[in-house]
Amino acid sequence: MGKVRWHLMMSLDGFAAGPGHSMDWMSGVRVGPDTHHESIATLGAVLGGRHGYDALAERHPGQASKQPYGGAWSGPVFVLTHHPEDAIPDPGVTFLTCDVAEAVAIGLAAAKGKDLEIHSQDIARQCVERGLIDEFRVHLAPVMLGAGVRLFDCPGIEPVRWARIHDGDPAQAVDLRYRPA
């Protein structure tokens, strides 16, 4: 069985998308080629949310399902929404109107033993609250946005602890140093 992974790039000030779910701020930011190859090789399906889908579908009508990993990956794409009837159609997207846990189960089944990747901060938050995330992978981009879609916006909950996946102490903080570019 594949994992449910929350995988994204985040700005230094904690935003996963800019205002209006824009992603243009990622232009010129790179991750190592092995990172993409590993992610693509283990990815079986994507589960996204309606707000992000709408923003992507407006920029790429009928092609939103071909956008994960810059088009280097293809497979089942699901969008969880309360109103599928007014969504911009995309032949590669299946719209779901169920509970988030059921949507995760549907995505995992479609992934056929590979991973289900969450592409929505709201869906990821719901999955974290229900203990459905198996792995969280974040790439920190050297940019501050000042506004947009927060990585994790869930006031009032207890802290969510993560154990770092690497050799050594899993609770060790990551030290980063930057200067203005």
From TrEMBL:
Start and end residues of each Bacterial bifunctional deaminase-reductase C-terminal domain: 3-161
Protein name as it appears in the record: Dihydrofolate reductase
A Gene Ontology biological process term: riboflavin biosynthetic process
Organism: Nonomuraea phyllanthi
Range of residues in the leader sequence: none
Listed Pfam families: RibD_C
Single GO MF descriptor: 5-amino-6-(5-phosphoribosylamino)uracil reductase activity
